[in-house]
Write a structure and sequence with these properties.
Length: 441
């Protein structure tokens, strides 16, 4: 007996769209064929010639749970993921308690198991907890980080000596080290020079040089180590250029970019105020153009949301608002709208949102529509371009810096063979709380 058969679809397989039928058994893709095998199926879905893309893996979310559940929790965050075609997320450690020891890890795992409707990984935090890193690995974390080199939301930045020791330890543990690359000293110096009533204050206080310096520092720091370095949310031309150079000389370095650094620039600060504040901040447009080029060329490996929700009321002015913007539900739909405008090929967006993410983070059995893989996919109608409306998204945040932007949202999202989002249903979500599964099992 099959769980589900998807018919009348253009399926993204082997880097291109092909007319195929997908049959699913026990949550995994059983066959991709011109005609599905004539076995009985629980559900048969005719998607009316729409495209079927791999379920997106968002390797950088902050679901705020435990600790900051007035901003988000594992249910609301995962519903937002599902509504944006994301079937697997990796949550970062700056929760309360921070995920820096096995006890905190287990607490987060219990919350996610109870509430998440998408599959999930959990990252381990790095502070001065060096003796905990091995134990966190034994717990089944996906990666270490984000590891902060400068202050950010509920984050303890590491000084260079501890950072080096942590990276030595992580190199023995063979998991990726995800670095939030901004140089704390440059930020401190800049802070004293600028007027906090200036709406551009945040961008000026965390200048591009802070990112470049931090990337240079951390890349040099690992030159003699066998460590998988992953630079989070790259936002500058020279930061990304440094990653490119490190790749050229054969280092194991990868990096990610967010839709906000691709689709907004510091020119949007006046319009957005606190809603445009995040770390690293929005950059001048010349950087944005370069990020697109590097993403198209694969120098920037992956796209993540850095979903960092705060309540609307907290984001009223730039100076007081905490940094971070929601994004897990809009990430892929915005990128598909960019595909439609020929800004980037579909294959690159799909690769950067699924297969390459699975590669970097060692997420097995996900990231491709391929026999034996988890049956995770989203169904899209590329003719159906909608608009982002922050209030209608599933995150508790209830706002988006992309209000009014074009986006192609999924009509149906399937996770391990089960429909979890169906646009025809009220609110779209049709999954049971807690039906998401930990990828560390
Ligand atoms: O803007 C940000 N917000 N950057 C981070 O690194 C952390 C995040 C958050 O958790 O709010």
């Amino acid at each position: 007996m099959l769980d589900i058969v998807v018919k009348n679809a253009k399926v993204f397989h082997d880097g291109e769209l092909k007319e195929l039928e997908i049959s699913v058994r026990d949550g995994k893709i059983y066959k991709l064929s011109k005609i599905a095998p004539p076995e009985q199926a629980d559900v048969v879905v005719d998607v009316g010639g729409r495209i079927v893309l791999p379920g997106v893996i968002d390797a950088h979310v902050h679901f705020r749970d435990p600790g900051f559940t007035s901003k988000e929790n594992w249910y609301t965050g995962s519903c937002a993921a599902a509504g944006g075609g994301v079937t697997c997320v990796v949550d970062h450690p700056n929760t309360n308690p921070p995920t820096i020891d096995p006890k905190a890890f287990r607490k987060k795992l219990r919350r996610a198991n109870k509430l998440s409707i998408v599959d999930f990984g959990i990252n381990g935090g790095v502070t001065s907890n060096l003796e905990m890193l091995e134990r966190l690995k034994e717990c089944g974390i996906t990666a270490f980080g984000e590891i902060f080199m400068a202050p950010s939301t509920n984050a303890e930045p590491l000084d260079n000596t501890i950072l080096r020791k942590a990276l030595e330890k992580i190199s023995e543990l063979s998991l990726p080290a995800c670095i939030h690359a901004e140089d704390g000293e440059i930020i401190l110096k800049a802070e004293s020079r600028f007027d906090p009533t200036n709406p551009m204050y945040h961008c000026l206080m965390r200048p591009p040089e802070a990112e470049v310096e931090a990337v240079v520092k951390v890349v040099n720091m690992v030159k003699d180590l066998d460590v998988k370095l992953h630079i989070c949310h790259i936002s500058t031309e020279d930061g990304a250029g440094m990653v490119r150079n490190a790749k050229y000389v054969g280092m194991k370095v990868s990096c990610e970019v967010t839709p906000h650094h691709l689709l907004l620039s510091e020119d949007d600060m006046l319009r957005l105020g606190g809603m445009g504040k995040m770390n690293p901040p929005l950059r001048p447009y010349t950087h944005v153009q370069k990020l697109w080029e590097y993403l198209r060329r694969g120098i920037i490996d992956i796209i993540v949301s850095d979903h960092a929700p705060h309540r609307r009321i907290e984001k009223d002015n730039v100076f007081d608002s905490p940094p971070g913007v929601p994004g897990v539900e809009t990430m892929f739909p915005l990128m598909l709208a960019c595909v439609k405008r020929n800004m980037i090929p579909l294959e690159r967006v799909v690769n950067a949102s699924s297969e390459r993410v699975a590669d970097i983070f060692g997420i097995l059995g996900k990231g491709k529509i391929e026999g034996g893989y988890d049956a995770d996919f989203g169904v899209y109608d590329m003719k159906c371009v909608g608009k982002v409306e922050g209030e209608k998204l599933h995150s508790k945040a209830g706002w988006s810096p992309f209000d009014g932007f074009d986006a192609i949202f999924p009509s149906l999202v399937i996770r391990r063979g089960e429909i979890i989002y169906d646009e025809r249903e009220e609110g779209g979500i049709v999954a049971e709380k807690g039906s998401g599964r930990w990828i560390g099992e």
